[in-house]
Fold this protein.
Amino acid sequence: MKKNLVVLSGAGISAESGVKTFRDSGGLWENHKIEDVASPEGFERNPKLVLDFYNARRRQLIEVVPNEAHLILAELEAFFKVEIITQNVDDLHERAGSSKVLHLHGELKKARPITTEFPIIPWEKDLNIGDLNLDGVQLRPHIVWFGEAVNEMDNAIKIVENADILVVVGTSLQVYPAAGLIHYIKKDCELYLIDPNVESSLVPPENRFKTSATIGMRKLKDILLMRN
């Protein structure tokens, strides 16, 4: 029986594909304050600014491709039951070939009504003021903004609780509630951390790879396949 390999991925893995992250520039995201483009209040103040911001993010996805770290995670499905929990809103895991991906913070290529959380609909073009659902309600990006509930947390917890191996890659472990998922693992779960900057006393020193996502995943792949 294949072991359950659960991956918690963050901005660091997508950054290696060229996806820009707001933490790279002192709290600004493409020269915008986070609260202006990633909060319900910001959308209420200036919906066009917010829609334009995410339109630019969505268009950027056309220009980037999955990197080796994404591809390795997809390859590991041949040897493990792999489930990915990602904080990223891009689709690079899916494009790399991973079949089970849970997006904690929403997805750029989806939209939903401003008044409710459902229905969620596919959306790959620009999203503008005047784009409505079938009930005539304005659509917004399907993104979990600051101050909004992370509705997939319960599902993420269930996945982590069943992990035989948990790999944390490319995340600062500072964004909650996602960072708290590490506390739900079983006592005998193997825990690995791949990030050039993050330390965690929860992870054994020999299982901490202070490298890029790509280099770390190369090393981890060799270790896991040697043991499997």
User: Anything to note?
Assistant: The CA atoms of residues 42 and 162 lie 38 Å apart. The first strand starts at residue 4 and ends at 9.
